[in-house]
Each structure stands twice: as structure tokens, then as C-alpha cells.
Amino acid sequence: MCTIGEAGQNGVCKQRPLICSILDPNAWFKPERLHPLVESLIYWRDVKKSGIVFGAGLITLVAISCFSVISVFAYLSLLTLVGTVAFRIYKSVTQAVQKTNDGHPFKEYLELDLTLSQEKVQHIAGVAVAHINGFTAELRRLFLVEDIIDSIKFGVILWVFTYIGAWFNGMTLVILAFVSLFTLPKVYENNKQSIDTYLDLVRNKLTEITDKIRVALPIGNKKPVAAAESEKDK
């Protein structure tokens, strides 16, 4: 298990990204890597906007957990349509009575450019492919026991997930993840120093235990075959 000092510039351990990033908050909470709009919402820069998005999202997820996705989508769309039509009629009547010509009430939104450029799509695809390749390589390393200690850690994590899956269904986990998205980043930002201190203690303790296990298990000190052959050639 690596320490923060061993992590790369993106906050993820170069050697063991999956295992390392779990206890490295810098790999999870980096507002500068987010789109400004997303960063503003989940870090509550504008409390009113974040509250509206959080409330609407939470209500939608709770509704989906109680009703079918199609029903929720249809009712929300119908509610939105009724609201926009009513507002459009209201503004038209107001303009007629006051004899003003303010134009279409949604003109600002109608003129928004929602098209995706080819460069943007290629950039998103490139980032997605890079993450998928890295994730696949890490899973291969863990499942094929390149490092037995890391594979054991991964097994413990999977074992914990079996209990989480028994306690919560998929939709409940989605709701918890959504709530965490709007709470944990702000909590970490406000208490970064104390949280990092406690996580460093946990990380150091785990490193100490890992080192003892590596000494006790000679197989844990074995190097990958490719690396051993490379050193032999040298």
C-alpha cells in the first residue's frame, strides 16, 4: 500500500491505483479536476442552486425506487411541460396587457448551444478509454494474484461488499451515493486537515500490518515473472 507521497500528480498511486486510492482522499476529492458547474453544485458554492438540484435529484431517485422508471420519467416530463406551457401563456398574456414586447420567455435557453463538437467527443472518449484500460489492467493484476497481499486486500473488500449487497438493494445504494456526492466533498473540504491526519494513521497501520504479512509469506515477496526475467537479462 502506497502513501500519499508515492501517489502521482492525479492523486492515484501509480503502482497500485485501485488499492491505494480507497484510502487516499486526494484521489476522490479534487475540485480542480471537475467541470466548474459540477464543482459549484457538489461543493455548495451557490446554496440555492445546489439545494434545488439536490432536492430534485433525491426526490426523483426516491420516486424511482417506489415506481417504475417509465412512470417517473413520464410524470416528471408531464409536470415540466405543464409548467413551461403555463408560464408561456402567462408571459404572453402579461405582454399583451402591458403592451410590451419582451419576446419569448425561454429565449435565453432556446439559444443555448447544446451540440457536442467532434473534438469534445474525442476527448471524452479518450479519457473513458484510458480509465477503462487502467481499470481492466488493475483487475487482471488482482485476480491473477500478481501481488498476493494486494489480492487478499481486494478479497476483503469484495467480502465486505457481499454484506453491503445483503443489507441494501441497488436503488438504495444509488440514493446513498447521490447523497454522499453532495455531502462528503464539502465535509472533507471543511475538515481536510483532521481527516487527513486520521487517514494517515490508518494508512500507516495498514502498511505496518502489510509489511509483516509480506515477511511471513515468502510468496508475497515474489516479483512478477516478466520483472524477474528482465532483471535476469541485465
From TrEMBL:
Membrane topology: Multi-pass membrane protein
Highest rank taxon of the organism: Eukaryota
Domain Reticulon: start-end pairs: 38-233
Primary location class: endoplasmic reticulum
The keyword Transmembrane is assigned to this record: yes
Transmembrane segments: 52-76, 156-184
One cellular component (GO) term of this entry: axon
InterPro entries: Reticulon, RTN1-4
Protein name per UniProt: Reticulon-like protein
Taxon lineage: Eukaryota, Metazoa, Ecdysozoa, Arthropoda, Hexapoda
